Amino acid sequence: GTLADEISSADNDMTIKGSPTLGVSGVRGKAIQLNGTSQYLCSDANQDGTCDNDTAWNMSTTGWTLSMWF
User: Which of 37, 35, 42 is CA-nearest to residue 17?
Assistant: First the structure.
């Protein structure tokens, strides 16, 4: 898959699966449009284009917040 490079200090890169629409207008700048079924992002900690079992995303061991605009 295509690498979605996350630029914060957390460096949580993701792999884009499927063929989502890239560069659509977002709330601030550009966004990615997913279809909710066959298009998704998955953790790619070692940046090899495959989905990883990344413990940084393990909900049972870390607290996290998800924010979305609709």
Answer: 42
